[in-house]
Amino acid sequence: MDKETIREALKQVKYPGFSRDIVSFGLVQDIDVGEDGGVVVRVAVTTSDAKAPKAIKDDAEAALRAVPGVKSAQVDIAVSAPKGAAGAASDPGGRPKRLEKVKKIVAVASGKGGVGKSTFAVNLACALERILADDGKPGRVGVLDCDIHGPSVPLMIGVGQQPTVTEDTIYPPENFGVKVMSMALLIDRDAPVVWRGPMINNAIGQFAQHVEWGELEVLVVDLPPGTGDAQLSLVQTFPVDGAVIVTTPQAAAATVTQRGARLFDKVNVPLLGVCENMSYLEQADGTRMEVFGSGGGAESASVLGTPLLGQVPLDPAIREGGDRGIPVVVAHPDSAAATAFCDIAAAVLRRLGE
Fold first, then answer.
1. What 3-state DSSP class applies to 105?
2. What are the residue boundaries of the structural domains of the chain, listed by start?
3. What's the CA gap between 10 and 2, in Å, rounded?
4. Alpha-carbon distance 312 to 266, whole Å?
């Protein structure tokens, strides 16, 4: 029995009201394992909920007592109250008050660049808005562009105006029923974003604490490719309910995608599924040309143990829509590409409801 065994046991303890555990939230501060089989764990919690610390203590001690070799288990919890400033975090998972009315947060990620992830995220958000509007819930979708170094979401969804900013609140602009927030809306258009890790972490923290999203059914978060500071900061700051992994059909992209997806497993964010972008080019005679090969999406989904949510065709209208700021789901709602995005959006909603 060692500290790593204890840490693994504590990963079974969920923070009350969340699907994530106290380890991935970073609440476990110290673990002492005695030679006599006694285990003492120190946990730090920031919350105004008086019931949460006791629930964590009880669940953690029960989980520890179930570990072979543990004779006694003691969990000491240090509780601090959240800061009183508007937008301060209201729970130890870093869930800001600004997000209390956001029901589900979905991260869109990829292991590498060049797979059309941001275009995918924008069209997914518009497809979700279309489905929810048909269900009598218009204006309940947001998209957050966390690609700090190359923010492109506002261009693709046709948002050029800056957000309204008060002393401590940012009100995101909206287009096509989707609320939009991005670093691109806060900096000069031609200014390069040359930021290091701590600055990136702070930017994502500001997005979490000061953007007033209002009531949303789904917030789509577009992550940069890879597994760097921005990705880790996002999953540590936002209570992400699930991740959608975007890949393309070729083997090289699928292999890197699988590596990138492992990040979410390590922080206990469930995978909602894999989506294959640029799957095929439909020719005039109805036949399909597999420009980038085939099978990458299905292979990635199989390896990761998650569903293949859908395949999006390679359609010039998708690129044109991004350049014009009118996503293909809006500009050509009856096209094969728009249908694919809507089918994927419906699958994402089903997976979130499971």
1. strand
2. 3-80, 97-353
3. 13
4. 28
Measured CA to CA, the distance from residue 278 to residue 38 in angstroms comes to 55
CB atoms within 10 A of CB 234: 25
Domain 97-353, CATH number (from 3.30.450.40, 3.40.50.300, 3.40.50.720, 1.20.1630.10): 3.40.50.300
With vertex at residue 348, the alpha carbon angle to CA 347 and CA 352, rounded to the nearest 5 degrees, is 120
Give the tens place of pLDDT for each residue, 24-58.
777 888 999 988 889 999 998 877 677 888 999 99
Q: Are strands 28-33 and 174-175 parallel, antiparallel or unpaired?
A: unpaired
What is the amino acid identity at position 284?
Answer: A
What is the spatial distance between Cα 49 and Cα 106, in angstroms, rounded to a whole number? 25
pLDDT tens, 79-128? 876 543 333 344 544 456 778 899 999 999 887 778 889 999 999 999 99
What is the rounded CA–CA span in Å between residue 64 and residue 67? 5
**Quick one: which of 310, 296, 317, 297 has its CA closest to 343?**
310
Closest by alpha carbon to 18, among 92, 97, 109, 98? 92
Provide the strand spans (E) within the chain: 28-33, 38-46, 72-80, 102-109, 141-145, 164-165, 170-171, 174-175, 178-182, 216-222, 242-247, 271-276, 281-282, 288-289, 308-311
